[in-house]
Amino acid sequence: MIAYTMIGVSDLPWAIDFYKPLFAQMGMEICWQDDTCASFGIVDDESVPRFFIGYPFDGGAASVGNGTMTAFRLQSPEQVVALYKMALENGGRDVGEPGYRPQYGEGFYAAYVRDGDGNKLAFVVYP
To answer: Where are the domains of the chain?
Structure first.
């Protein structure tokens, strides 16, 4: 259903340095990049939705929507912890430490971070 997601950033080089190791940990790489944006995914598999980061096309400031979040589904709680720690080490901000969230369902394990522009990310595992 989803072809790609794009989030606005105010500093593309910083954002690439933040996101590149996170996506590498998830088995993805930069698929395309220019001076205004970059996409992550699997180069040889266009069925995998791409995740774009870039300057807003209207030339305005990057802004974050209240309640907007992108969640990345993983295979194990250990992956969630690793990505959470990596995000914080690369300048991300904690908005929810790794742990089980029974209110979302049995076995739901997640961690939440924000990037340098305030975009919210979730790393999740659920059956």
So the answer is: 4-56+69-125
- pLDDT tens digit string along 66-93? 889 999 999 999 999 999 999 999 999 9
Q: Calculate helix-pair angle for 77-89, 12-25, nearest 10 degrees.
A: 160
**pLDDT average, residue stretch 22-47:** 96
What is the domain class of 4-56+69-125 according to CATH?
A: alpha beta
Residues 65, 71: Cα–Cα separation, whole Å: 15
Give the dihedral sign, CA 51/53/54/60: positive
pLDDT number for residue 65: 84
Read off the tokens for 109.
Answer: 């394990």
